[in-house]
What does this fold into?
Amino acid sequence: QVQLVESGGGSVQAGGSLRLSCAASEDAFDSACMGWFRQAPGKERERVAAIDRDGTADYANSVKGRFTVFRDNAKRTLYLQMNSLEPEDTATYYCTASRSFEYSAIAGVILCGDGDWGQGTQVTVSS
It folds into this structure.
């Protein structure tokens, strides 16, 4: 059974950093594409990052250069390092595991297609 458990969210000031973690079950971690999306009140869901089994990653234009997604295969854990955080980054962040890739018009790049996700972790960035 697929399990994804996010952690690491919190409240930070603009310019600060957070590292999110996603503990994944074996079948989830073996997915072709793993990544992160976020959802803020009043805004559309936004896919922000993706990584394949080999560690090749890509990012939404809105976070490129500030966020880094990486994986620890031994720990079956996915991470999202977020630097230079902005108030616009405030959202609930979800880890996702998918068997497909698809182009996201919002992100402007190819990221994970629809799949499974966890319970989410809240990130709040204040001015």
User: Anything to note?
Assistant: The first strand starts at residue 4 and ends at 7.
